Amino acid sequence: MNTTRILQFLSDVAANNDRTWFHAHKDEYDACRADFEEGVAKAISHIATFDKTTAHLTVKDCTYRFYRDTRFSEDKSPYKNHFGAYIAAHGKKSLHGGYYMHLEPGHCMLAVGTYWLPTNILTSCRNEIMANTEEWLRCVENRPFVSLFGRPGKSEWNDPKGFGIAHLKTAPSGFPRDYEHMEYLRMKDYCAWHVVGDDFFDGDDWLAAMEKVFKTGKPMMDFINSVVDDYE
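User: That's the sequence. What structure does it adopt?
Assistant: Structure tokens below.
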């Protein structure tokens, strides 16, 4: 991908986020969008080499509208300031976890897992973690995982890495407060992310680096998906 061009366009959108400006630069948007989607197609093909459940996906299955839904937001800016793709076997609107790639000036990233799970599924995930603690810890406390994503409750979305976007302040209702690994039960999602440089997606060499990140997070995602899939 020509990420220099894409990120410059996204910077320009952030500085001129209105319909008049955007319509005057629609050709540049179309060119950048096409370049990004070509990269997404390569990512899908590459991910399928180590996760065959994603092989059937198309670019359209994984990408989002650039137009923001402003109905319930105080920010009425009509356009996003990033390109994102969620490569998930059950579709981008499913609860089943997947792989996410995000292009935004100064905050490009890769992420793996799932987020905003309903309470009943979260409860089942927490029960599964308690019932299989050793297996869970092997997924999330090995050195590569911690190095790439960190530990739960230590980061926010804008930080360079993190594990879990939202967390309860105390133990979830119905769970023992003295559980040794309470930090994993307090999680409200199981999303792990790692910020990369703005030049990360240039050329094609990024595919191998992407694979390393995603394969490191995959055991955690598979553990959670084994619970989530019972509900889908």
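The first strand starts at residue 83 and ends at 87.
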